[in-house]
Amino acid sequence: MIKKERMKVVAHKELAPSIFELTLQGELVTEMNQPGQFVQVKTTEGVEPLLRRPISISSYDSSEKRFTMIYRAEGKGTTLLSQRREAEAVDILGPLGNGFPVHEAKEGETALLVGGGIGVPPLYQLSQMLVANGVRVIHVLGFQTKSAIFYEEEFSELGDTYIATVDGSYGTAGFVTTVIDNLEQEFATIFSCGPTPMLKALEAGYRQKKLYLSLEERMGCGIGACFACVCHTGDDPTGFSYKKVCSDGPVFRAGEVVL
Amino acid sequence: MSRLSVELPGLHLKNPIMPASGCFGFGREYSQFFDLDVLGAIMIKATTPEPRFGNPTPRVAETSSGMLNAIGLQNPGLEKVISEELDWLGTYDVPIIANVAGSQIADYVKVAREISMVGNVKALELNISCPNVKEGGIAFGTVPEVAKEVTKAVKEVSSVPVYVKLSPNVSNIVEMAKAVEEGGADGLTMINTLVGMRLDLKTARPILSNRTGGLSGPAIKPVALRMIYEVSQQVSIPIIGMGGIATAEDVIEFFYAGASAVAVGTANFVDPFVCPTIIEELPKLLDELGFDHISECTGRSWKQNEAVANYRP
Fold first, then answer.
1. Are strands A210-214 and A189-193 parallel, antiparallel or unpaired?
2. Taking the CA atoms of chain A, what radius of gyration do you get in angstroms?
3. On chain B, which terminus has fewer CB atoms closer than 10 Å, C or N?
4. What's the predicted TM-score (pTM) here?
C-alpha cells in the first residue's frame, strides 16, 4: 500500500561529488517488499519546486523501519534535498511502482546486475536479496569517471564487481557493454538500471537472456494518474496500448515496452 | 457537512470540491488513497470519440511554482470510457462531470450525446480549450462565434447540463464567456491551462516534445482569479473555478472572485490526499471567517454591500 509520511532523516552524507546517500526512518518502510521500487520526494515545503522527485530505493530494513536512497544533487529540488540534516523531516510518498522480479533467478544460478551512474543504487537491495536466495551475482557498474564511483566495496562484498568508466580513469575504459562482452562467466538472467542508451544496448545484445530493465522517465504524479511517463508496448509499438513507467514499471521485461 | 453543499445545474454537490479533468484520470489511482465518495464530484479525463495515444514524451516540464504538460488528450475512447471507466465509477455515490473533447463539431456532438446518457454523468464539461491538440481544437476556445456554435450543437444533443471550459489564452475572456452563455451553456468552468514553453539549457530546444504545453499549478492562480472576477460579474450562469488551487484558503479566494464550486488540479499530483484534506479544513476556515455556508462567499469581492451586511467580526 502506498503511504504518505513525513519521515525522519537518520543519516545523510555525500558519497561522491554531488552523490548523496540519505537514510530515512518511518512506518512507510513496512510497505517495502521488493527491490527496484521508488519513492516520490517533496524536496521542500511549499510550492517551489512544486513537483515531487522520483528517487529509487537503494536498500531498506523493515525491522529498523529505515530505507536508504542515493541520488544526484543536480537541479534545484535535489540540491535543496541535499541540505536536509539529521532529525529533520522529509515528506515521502511511496513505495511506488513494481520492482525487479527477484525469483526469476533461481538458487544456484548466476545473475548479472548491470548499473549505469545513478541507476546503480536500486541494484544494491536486489543483489542482497538474490544472494540471500542462494543466487550468485556478478555486478557490472558504469560511471563517468573515477571520482563518481560509489558503493564499489558494498557490491564487492556480495559478488564479483566490475567497474567501467567512460574516461578510462578506473576499471575498464568504456561502457558496461565493453565489460559484459568480455565476461567469461555464464549467466541466465540480467537485471539492469541506468540511462536509456545503456538499456537499449543491453536489449540489442542480450535479448536471448532473461533481461529485466528499470526505466527512467520524467514523472508528474508517480502513481499513474497524470499520463506523463507513458510508453508504447512492444507488441503494439505504434498503436493505442501503453504502459506507465511509474505504476506499471519502472521494471519491465525486455521487449515489453518500446525504449 | 450541509454548510458545504452546493446546488448547480444538474449537480447536487455535498461539497464544492472536485478533482479537475486530466489530473485525476478516471479516479482509479486515487481510490487507493481515499474513499471517492467524499468528493463533491469528479471531472473525468477528456474523452474523444476514438482512442488517443497522445503526444510523445517528454510530456511534462516543471516551472516556477507550476508545471507544463502536453499529454495530448490520451484516453481509451468513448466506448471504453463508458463501458469500463464510468461503469466502475458507478459503484461510487459521486456525480461525474464528463469532459468532452474532439477536433471537429461532429466529435463533440457524438461524445456528448452518448456519454450524457450514462446514469452517473450529471453534467458535461465541454473542452474547447485544450492547448495540446493540433487538429484545430484551439479555435473552438478562442473564437467567440465558433465557441458559441459548438456549445449550441452540444446543448441540442446532451441529456444533462453543459458547462463550457474556457481557455485563458484569449485577449477578452468576458467576450468568450458571453458567447457560450448565448450558445446555451448552463455553466462555465475556468480556467484551462495557459500556453507556455521551457527550453533545455544544453540542447537549446524545447523540453516538451510538443514544444509548447499548458501551464498549471499555483503559478496561474492570480490569472484564474482575475478572469473569474471579471466573468462572474458579466454572466448569469455559475462558474466552477480552477487554476492552482491547493488549500482551503485558495478555495475561499476563488469563491470571493465569483466561483460557486472549484476544481483541484495539479495539487493532486503533489499530494494525492489534497481534495479530502481541503474538504476537511473548509468548515474550520468558514468558522474563522464568520460564514455559515460556503455559498455566502461567492462573488463577495464585488458584492460589497451584501458582504458588509453579513460579516460577523
1. parallel
2. 18
3. C
4. 0.94
Query: Tell me, what's the ipTM?
Result: 0.94
Length of chain B: 313
Range of the domain at B146: 2-310
The total of structural domains in chain B comes to 1
User: A2 to chain B: which residues are within 8 Å by CB?
Assistant: 32-33, 272
pLDDT by residue (tens digit) across A10-44? 999 999 999 999 999 999 999 999 999 999 999 99
For residue A238, the 8-state DSSP code is: T
Helix axis angle, B221-232 relative to B173-182, nearest 10°? 50
Residues 6+ apart with CB under 8 A from B163: B9, B97, B123, B124, B125, B126, B185, B186, B187, B188, B189, B240
Provide the CATH number for the domain around residue B133: 3.20.20.70
Residue-wise pLDDT tens digits, A192-248: 999 999 999 999 999 889 999 999 999 999 999 999 999 999 999 999 999 999 999
User: Which chain B residues are Cβ-neighbours of A217 within 8 angstroms?
Assistant: 57
Task: Say whether residue B58 is in contact with chain A using an 8 A CB cutoff.
Answer: yes
Cβ–Cβ contact B46 with A under 8 A: no
Residues 72-101 of B with CB under 8 A from A: 74, 76-77
Size of interface A-B (CB pairs under 8 A): 94
